[in-house]
Amino acid sequence: MANRKNRIKPADSELKEKLVNLNRVAKVTKGGRTFSFAAVVVVGDGKGTVGHGLGKARDVSEAIAKAVDDAKKNLVKFPIFKGTIPHEQKGKYGAGKVFIKPAAEGTGVIAGGAMRAVLEISGVQNVLAKSQGSSNPHNVIKATIDALLKLRSPQMISKQRGIKVSKIFEG
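Given the sequence above, the corresponding C-alpha cells read:
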C-alpha cells in the first residue's frame, strides 16, 4: 500500500503505539474451541510519521507485540502544517472511505474510531475527519493513511510547479 519512497526508519525509542482493535477468534476442533487473538496497532512519532500493523497469536500480549513489530515495518511520513494538515483530502481503501479537512487552532482531533487513533498518534492536533462506507478498522486505518500520503506541503507544490512558496499563498 505505501510506496517504497514514503517508507522511513526512525529510532524505535521515539515511537508511541496505540491498540486500535483486539479480536478474539475461535477455531473449532475435535477437542473443543481453540481461541486466538488478532490485534491491530498504529505507531507514530507525533511528528508526521505513522504506521499500522496486524499481529495474530494465542496470547493477547504476544499478538500486540507482533502487531507493533509489523507496524514499525510499515512507517510512512506525511506533511504537517501548523499542527494540522495542509489541505483537505479524500482517501480510500476497499470499502473504507475517509475525508480529512484542516481545522483552526484549538479545534482538536474531531474524528471517530480508528481514524482518531491514526491522526492522534501521527501528531496532527487540529483536524476535522469523516469516515464513510466500511467501519472495519483495517480498512479505515488504511484509507486514512492513503489520504495522509496524498497530502502535499506548500514546498512540494512550489517545487512541482516551479514557483516560489510565497506565490502559492497569493490570491
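The helical segments are 60-73, 113-122, 137-150, 154-161, 165-168. Try to locate this feature in the C-alpha cell string yourself.
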